[in-house]
C-alpha cells in the first residue's frame, strides 16, 4: 500500500508513519518535517493546505491518502482569528487536496496516471455536539455550535472526492489515549501530582480510543473496500468524566480529593474552548463493529494500564 500522509508530525501521524512502508508526507514546513521525521523512511513535499492545491506529483501513484492535517483545537483561546484558522486548515485544506485528485482524474484518463483509490480524511466526534446520555452512531444528525458546523463542512469537502471515484472514509476521532501527546499527555502531570478532579458534575460522557486501536482502525479503513463514509473512531465503552477521572487516578495510584472544576473557571482561562470540555458525547463505534473491526483495548482501565503501567 503506497500511502501519503498529511499531519504526519502530530502524535497520531507519527504513530501511523511507523506502520507504513516509505510513505509520502505533505507538510507546511517541509525542512522541519524532514528533521523531525528523520527516523522514518519518508519523502517530504511542501504544502500549505489553506492556501494552495496539494502538489500533484506527490499524489501520483499513491494508493491511499491519510488526511490528518489541521490546526490544533486545544492550543490557545478560541479567538475569532483562531476559529478562522481552525476552519481554513480543515475545510480549505481538504478542498485543496480534493481539487488535485480531480485534476489527477483528468490526467489519468489522458496519460494513465494512477489515481489514489481511497481517502481517509479525519473528522471528530465534535460532529455530535452536546448530547447528554444519548448513544450516538454514525447515522445520527450533527449537533449545534461551532465544532459540529466545522465537522459537517470538513466531511462535506472530503466527500467531494467520491465524484472522481475515490472511496472516502471519515473517521470521527474521539479522545485519543497516548501519554506522549494529546489530551492524556496534558492531563498526566496534574493527575500524578494528585490534583485531579472532575469537570463540573462529571456526568458528561467522554468517548475515547487507545492510540494503537486508532492506528489499526485507520489502516483497517484504508484496506477494507467495504468501509465508506463516517466511522466513529472510539472504543465501544465510553465513560463519564467522573468515571474517567476516578479510573485514571486509580491506575496512577493517586487521590481525587479536590472539588469539581466549575465551567466558569475554565472559561476564564481557556475561553470558548472550555465549553467543548463539558460537552457530553456517548459515541458508539457502530460502523467499525459492523465491519468486524476487533478492538484490542475496549475497556478504559485496561487501556490506561497498557499505556501507563
Give short descriptive properties of this protein.
8-stranded parallel sheet, Rossmann fold, alpha/beta
Sum this structure up briefly.
By secondary structure, the protein is α/β, with parallel strands linked by helices. It contains twelve helices and 14 strands. The protein has a single domain (3-176, 208-238, 280-297), classed as Rossmann fold (3-Layer(aba) Sandwich).
Give the mean pLDDT.
95
Number of strands: 14
The radius of gyration computed from the alpha-carbon positions, rounded to a whole number of angstroms, is 19 Å
Shape: globular
* Level-2 CATH architecture: 3-Layer(aba) Sandwich
Query: What is the terminal separation in angstroms?
Result: 34 Å
CATH class: Alpha Beta
CATH topology (level 3) name: Rossmann fold
Uncertain segments = none
Q: What's the domain count?
A: 1
Order of helices and strands: EHEHEHEHEEEHEEHEEHEEHHHEHH
